[in-house]
Amino acid sequence: MNAFMLRPRYFVWSTVALFALLFCACTQQQPPGATKEPLIVSAAASTKEIMEAVATQFQSETGTEVKVNVGPSSGLAAQIEAGAPADLFLSANQQWADEVLKAGYADAMTRLLTNQLVLVVPNANLAGVKQPQDLLSAKVKKIALAGEKVPAGIYADQALTKLDLLKPLTDMGKIVRGQDVRTALTYVERGEAEAGIVYSTDVSIAPAVTQVYQFDPKLHDEIVYMLVLLKHGSQNPAAKQLFEFLQSPKADAVYTKFGFSRLPDSRSAP
Amino acid sequence: MFLTLAEWQAVRLTLLVAIVAVLASLPLAVALGWLLAKRNFPGKFLVDTIINLPLVLPPVVTGYLLLVTFGRQGYIGSFLERAFDVRYVFDWKGAALASAVVAFPLFVRPIRLAFSAIDDRLVQAARTLGARPLDAFWSILLPLARPGILSGSLLAFARSMGEFGATIMIAGNIPGETRTMSLLIYTQLDTPGGMEQSVRLVVASIVIAAVALAAGELLERYGRRRLQGPEFQKAAA
Q1: ipTM attached to this prediction
Q2: Mutate to test the interface with B, among A177, A180, A183, A188 (most CBs of B within 10 A)
Q3: Which of A211, A217, B43, B94 is the most buried (most CB within 10 A)?
Q4: How is residue A218 annotated by DSSP?
Q5: pLDDT digits (tens, 9 = 90+) for A127-150
Q6: Across the interface, which of A100, A142, A147 has its CB nearest the CB of B90?
Q7: Does domain A117-219 bear CATH number 3.40.50.300?
Q8: At residue A1, does pLDDT exceed 80?
Q9: Residues A100, A228: contact at Cβ < 8 Å?
Q10: Is the separation of the CB atoms in A130 and A212 below 8 Å?
């Protein structure tokens, strides 16, 4: 048996062993102190940071792990209707929360947060965009919006329609739809789109992007983030606890830090 | 109408992207297939690995790499935009590029196999009869490799039609411009109540795939009959 005969087999087995070790290492990632079933929160993409921050707080206080599943509110609603085992749902508009309620998956819901719709550009702003009318100029080739069914996209479409800009911009082929508001933000960050319409809270987490204009709230529906306690979570006391925790002053501190504001008429849980 | 306007747009776009992807990568696939089958050179293993990379990489990773290279801030992308005003990101050309790259390994493989199955002595015989290398390639190697080239094209076409991850990364999801059938089905499914809507497109995809396969099968049989020549046809009859 010489070295040459052994080599291929040795290589194959050592690769298999390496993968097996990697696999074992990956599955050891249990967070310390998590003893109960983790909760799942389906949250609108724009709330990724606040939900993760609140989840960490909740876990350190109660020991229950919270997994945050982010995506476009429309997509999350579709997942819930398809039977996804989420306990809570934070929708960026009323429509998708109502949809989930209509389909019989909601147990309780409450108005939680609001936001502002803004026009953003890459920091260099080579197209010189200062206000929505500038979007018609030839220097602006692509404008990034969230998808047609995504709340941020719906609000943006409403605002652009009221300003008589949506049809001309669509006809000029300038509108690019991202899967959710954060994808639209990334397009602007990378300079692939000369402008985009996102939330004011998204600007603070994207240093490569500058806000140039804030849309008058009258141009679109009131931006309402609905917090829904889903049927899957309604039997779980930990989920109910999280539902209350998200409305408590402790959570408020997180919301304010990231630029979100509570809706004036939403009640605060003690 | 069986399909809505948006869905017809998606079908047309998918076919355009797939056909352009296959046609544009055909010369390169044939050249590389021949090179890998008939020639040995230093670095051949590296070339082979790079060609097969899109086959093993997750398509999203391929899309990311394409974006970094062909995006506005990428090496090739910024040059192309400055020099020719050509854009890949958010353009159907980007979708075609993504499909071409992802399908390339499937394109090269059957072509390479076809070329390596051809007896070298046939080419040598042609050369001794006075044919120049290019002439020998066109009149001997290429016709004999036709079934492999055909099957490679079919595989590449099918793969291009189904491409999703790389396409959505580099071309985005723009209705009418880059929203291919896969992307439209995905968008529909991402909305409550979308599952019923997607049925039409799913059926359309199956029909197109079946037609492409049937066409490929017929062409292959025709090609085989021609290759075997009239004497064999009479003998087989």
Answers
A1: 0.74
A2: A177
A3: B94
A4: G
A5: 999 999 999 999 999 999 999 999
A6: A142
A7: no
A8: no
A9: yes
A10: yes
**Do residues A171 and A137 lie in contact, with contact meaning Cβ atoms separated by under 8 Å?**
no
Domain ranges of chain B: 5-228
Chain A CB contacts of B73 below 8 Å: 190-191
The domain made up of B5-228 is a member of CATH 1.10.579.10: no
The residue in chain B having the minimum alpha-carbon distance to the alpha carbon of residue A173 is B177
Question: How far is CA A232 from each of CA A89, A109, A245, B149, rounded to the nearest angstrom?
Answer: 11, 14, 18, 54
pLDDT bracket for residue A270 (50, 70, 90): very low
Give the nearest partner residue to A147 out of B72, B187, B192, using CB atoms.
B187
Buried residues in B134-160 as b, exposed as e (16+ CB within 10 A):
eebbeebbbebbbbbbbbbbbbbbbbb
Architecture of domain A39-114+223-262: 3-Layer(aba) Sandwich (3.40)
For residue B172, the number of C-alpha atoms closer than 13 Å in the C-beta half-sphere is 31
Kindly report, as residue ranges, where domains of CATH 3.40.190.10 are found in chain A. 39-114+223-262, 117-219
A 32-61: CB under 8 A from B: none
Contact of A78 with chain B, judged by CB distance below 8 Å, is answered with yes
Q: Which of B90, B92, B169, B196 to mutate to test the interface with A (most CBs of A within 10 A)?
A: B90
Give the HSE-up count for residue B139: Cα atoms under 13 Å, Cβ half-sphere. Answer: 14
Tokens of B119: 């007896």
